[in-house]
Amino acid sequence: MSSSIMLRLSLLGAMSLLTLQAFASPAGMKLPAGAVFLGSGQAIEGTPPVYKFKLSNGLKVLILADNRNPLATLRIKLDAGSNRERLGTTGLAHFFEHMMFRKTQVTPEGHYDRILGGIGGRGNAATSTDYVVYEASFPGPALDKMLELEAQRFKFLDLQDPYYTTEKGAVISERRLRYENDPLQRGLEIIRRAAYKGTPYEWLTIGTKQDVEQMSMEDARAFYRDFYAPDNAQLFLGGPFNVETVLRKINDAFSDWTGKTRSQPARRAERSDSDTAGKKFVCSESVFEEQHSLIFPSKDNSFRSAVLTQLLLQILNDTPDGTMQRRMTKQKLATGFSVYKTSWQKQSQPYVAWFRLNRQQTFAAASDYFYQELRAALSRPITPELKRVFLKQHEVEEAEYAQKMTSLVEFYEWNEFFYGDFKISTQTKKIIDSLTTKEFQAWGREAFSQQKAFHMGVTAPGKSTPCNDFEKTAAQK
Amino acid sequence: MFQDKKAVFCIPQKLSWAHLTATTFCTLALAMPTAKALAQSGGGGALINARPAVQSKPVPLNWRSIVWPSLNFNRTAVDGGAALYSIFGETGKKIRLDFLFETGVYALPRNLRTNLSATVDMFLQGGAGTRNYEELQKYLADNGIQVTTSVSSVGQFHVAVEVLAPDFLLAMSALEDMLLRPRFDRDALEIWKMEQTDAFQGMLDGGNSRKQGRFIEQEAIRLAFGSEHYFAQALARTSKPELEKVTAEKMRQIAGLLVNRAGLNVVLSGNINAKQEQSVLQLMRKIPRLTPITYSWLPDRVRGAGSNKLRLSIIRKPDLSQATLTLRYYLPAIGKLNRIERTRMTILREVFSASGGVIGNDRFSKAMRSDSGLSYGPYASFDPEAIEPNTNTGVWRMNFQSPNERIVEAVKLATKTWETFASKGITQDELDSARISRINTTLATEQTVFDKVDDFIDDLQAKVLPNPLGLESALVRLEQEKDLATINNLLFSQVSAGTVPVLVMMGNPSEAAVKELRSIPGVEIAKEVNFEDLVKELVSGGPK
Hints:
The complex is a heterodimer. Chain A is built from 17 helices and 13 strands. Chain A has two domains: about 250 residues, 2-Layer Sandwich (Cytochrome Bc1 Complex, Chain A, domain 1), CATH 3.30.830; about 200 residues, Cytochrome Bc1 Complex, Chain A, domain 1 (2-Layer Sandwich), CATH 3.30.830. By secondary structure, chain A is α+β, with helices and mostly antiparallel strands. Chain B is an alpha+beta fold. Chain B folds into two domains: about 210 residues, Cytochrome Bc1 Complex, Chain A, domain 1 (2-Layer Sandwich); about 220 residues, Cytochrome Bc1 Complex, Chain A, domain 1 (2-Layer Sandwich). In chain B, about 40% of the residues lie in helices and about 15% in strands. A six-stranded mixed sheet of chain B has the order 1-2-6-3-5-4, sandwiched between helices. In chain B, a hairpin with a 4-residue loop joins strand 4 and strand 5.
């Protein structure tokens, strides 16, 4: 059960939300009552097509029939991450994810694990700022049991003590393990609280210490009622199946999952530029490795902007003197470097330049070098050779995804959730082929404008205000 | 995306899974309101009270109905003691090439280990042919070629290449340069040392569980094997004093020993053709044939503690609000397990710490997490070769966390859970469920040609022929394991032959807790050390 803050965007995930459109059902396929066929196709050549449907209750279903192995995988993703929380109930999305593995009204405590183990399957779940996803891999012949098992917990979860209190102990342990006992994460939590103040991104997905310890069962029940609804979920199934048959089975198991999402709080992560532009959110902890990020707020959540960010990184790396990281290492400026676009759903998606420094290095020197190289990169022509290399690396990445059915399903899930189009990556070639130098430069100068950037970082002791003092000062302000 | 949340097996209580076919698993035996009926009666999302389902034991899926493709490979001998194995896999666009050289860690003097690591890395990072590293890196990136150099689990030098099939010959050109014309540029070595020093320094704050785990591992090995043991010095080998001993001259000497056709195994796999196969054979023939070199030393076997007391090492780190612990029972007299014994140990492990499930229903996770809420990520495992490539020592490992204020409770619970398991064994229900779970797990295996190559390489390193019926043989062996006494006797005999129990804790226990730990019968506090002192020791190159 992992919680993650900013997920690096894959080149293959991305783009603006498309309006769902219903099509006639695929040839010869009989759909369950009320179900709608939304389209089919493949994003990667040589792989089986994906079929997309919507059930009568609003649940979206994507099916990948792949016969390479007897293995099947089922993933259910909900728009119920920590950006659905409010101050006072932070950590609820993640805590709730834990509870989904315990008791339902129709099955006893521990039932999910017992059945999953018995059929030889493996399960997991993850919560982020933007979503929660439940995944299980299992033998294809056990599909009926697996669907029943999943449907039970989505329809009839039962929050009860002593399991609620016991599981809280495990979450508190997880919080201590991942955050409280890690000085870097402790610092980042404080920095984030200041930088994203007033937005649902000011707290970590795991929640504040106080909220986790005081989380009430009533709040958890409200969260289940408000967000665990079929119209807020997507179900992805891959395995050695016949599409029509498994759609019917999914419909049998899930079509009576009723309810509507009752609340969709604003999910804005951005503050107004005047709150952050040029600001430094930096404090010190007892770390030997420093981490710094230059954040460039952006309202552009298009797939194109994600592709161009990847291209920018490629250009930064493409010099006779080595990759950007290599050059920074050689010049003793940083020990780690990356550029990426944050994946936040249906909203702003800041660009980030990330640096890891040792104690002797300074952020000022590293960021100066970054801006210098950024200017150089944005003045280079977009040549056919640059495009060829980019598309070659894209092809390699696609080949990785195509290798395994489970990877393919995750790939489609990512695209569908963040961009509403599981085939979005097919746009990549078109975007690159049609890109001009002028367009790229205009995009880059707007996206990475130094004037709007702000700095988040955790330094070694003595190089900035201790994080505890920083937090006190921020609170006083 | 996912952290390794432990997967867990179930302890079936009164489960009543009815008989199923291969396609419909587990229909409930007793009448119960179906989910659908409940929804109709109560409405979606309504809280409905219903009688919990009562279920029976799991049923094995019909694996016999599945025909797994047999592993098909061609072996081409190359004069001088080398062989090329070609494994065709038509799905996928990629080709993978693995060069496994016979020479490695245990063929070279032990004190050259850090130099060997540098050499292995610098085959790539030191430049090759006419290209320095930066130029080589660009060439590889421009052509979508991934190259890794590493030391395998049995200490061999391993080079792996992955590339799209049409670009294979471009990869071969770079590989030939790396193996036959490595440069070991001095400036690149300095950068390597800088990176290694940064990585070493970064570890010393012990800031997260991964870093802490390396210190805990070191202390556990020290307790069980002694401070001088090869494995106990893994961290010290990455310290600055050791890095300073690495020179380009020594690297060249080592490289001259590593790249040897004698004993070389090469595996070419994926979407391959005859032309590509020929290009690999040509490169193999160009590799010099030197005097064969084999193991000259191996890590020492376990030194028994002379008593069965649980020896505890406490690493104090004052900023920790929760301790991370490892509890281990080394089995120095386990010997080399045969396939039947390995199958039985798999079942025992499944009961104690399972591979399926999520929050905890095997013995260990149930105790440490789902029943007690003590620990987020308890995890236990059995390793029959704790000091691979020596094969006589096994170990049961239990890793867990505990809030500082519950440390004594956590230690007592973990040791009691183990002792109950080790002294009473498992039940018939547990045996049946674990066996079936393991059988069914095989059907949840996703195997690409490259996964099969991983298994194939393991066989090559063990110097055994791959079993074309590997999966089916394992399933048949599992099916045969129905006799409870036989399985429990294996566990009992291993434990009664003597264990070396050790416990390492990194945390901030109170004095009262330490006093209470000291008073637990059978527990002996062998060492208390401040984390800072361990760091100082490491910075100066490790224990003297």
